[in-house]
Amino acid sequence: MELVRATVLANEQIMPSTHVIDLVCPSLARAAQPGQFVHIRCGPSWSPLLRRPMSIYRIGKDSVSLMVRNVGEGSAIIAASPVAAELDVLGPLGRPFTLDATSRRLLMVGGGYGVAPLVALATRALARECEVMLLVGAATADYVFPADNLPPAIEYAVSTVDGTLGHKGFVTELMSRYLDWSDAVYACGPTPMLEAVARLTRPVQGVSGAMRSRKPVQLAMEQHMGCAMGVCLGCVVMTRHGYQRVCRDGPVFPAEELVWEGARV
Description:
Order of helices and strands: EEHEEEHEEHEEEEHEEEEEE
CATH topology of the largest domain: Rossmann fold
Number of helices: 4
Number of domains: 2
Largest sheet: 7 strands, mixed
């Protein structure tokens, strides 16, 4: 982790209110791992005061790309960053995804903005000759992550809540088609979606009475953050080991470690 000045190489709007910003920063690119994030100062003034966390979307040789959704004052400033501007960036931060050497067929589930870190993970997995199935969910077709922004080797299926594109319903409703095929599951998105992924992938008792073995399931939590360095304790979630910080102990957690609304999953 270091504090760096990163130069904006490109800024492209890929969906309504959603931009991909390419940043030139060799030291950050060398250190970054899929699932990690950066903490960005919103502008030259101290208003807004707090930095904003942004998931690392792509990792290049000398650059990283971020997917920035304009949802408020701070993110709007970052999303509007012009080419050649310098951003004050702290990172990379957090615990990343890990790729098990024995897993060859990977199921990834992204809800809304949660697709961002899965793109970096899928790209790395393809380089290791893994097969990747990416399930993408959104409220409506306008906010579905565009398929032409993905490596062509990724298999891709879409779900929208209103049925305007792909399956009508929640993205987790698509998982049953691919669970038996997959060796490992990765997900990022809203907390209710992650809870559903954890529930759908937990071991169950088969007809013979034996428990189905648990495949690796890793969940990247989305949480509001203050310092992003583990000091303010503003982003804690409940786990089997007590409260843990999403910014330092996560954002990626094994599914079996997380506790959902007082009930162990």
